[in-house]
Write the structure tokens for this entry.
Amino acid sequence: HALIRLDASGNRISHTPPSLSQLMNLRVLNLSDNRIEHLDSMDILPLTGLTELKLTGLTELSVAKNKLSEIPLAVAVLQHLRYLRLSHNKITELDSDMLRLPSLLELHLSDNLLRLLPERGWSQATNLDPLDLAGNVLTHVPRGLGLLTNLTVLGLTRNETLPKVEIYFRQHITHWCIRICRMRLNFSGYSACQTCNLVTCG
């Protein structure tokens, strides 16, 4: 049977083996808690699984707790990727191409070295929930985050360099649980947050 799920977490892997690109039916790949410094795009591209002119490949990619300094651009072509876990690395930048993944539901980027977020592209990432950016070195939060219409959990704690900011949520809000860090939320159409569940995290 074709391999669909591969869990190679908790090892001492320093690079992805060339044979990875041969797993054309792979849907879930877990490489967390290893020593990977670079994820080769040539290993990822074949995992898009081009079948009948429709991308079907990976739906879940976990490379948390490694030594990555960047997100391979090839990740941006994983059209059916739903869960992307990249926490506890050394990533310094989030490319706006990552926001164009049409199926992406969860994006975990906590405990990296992110300083800035893309100003544009958030309107294409409206399915995101949660968005975890805790434990970085952010200095600015783009106003475009307010376009994430399905977002209920926003992790921004432990960004000590982040000044007080405002995020404008344009949609009608009923029950939200937003993890905030030195932020002021402006809910369009509401003078107060009486209908919202706000959780403040240290």
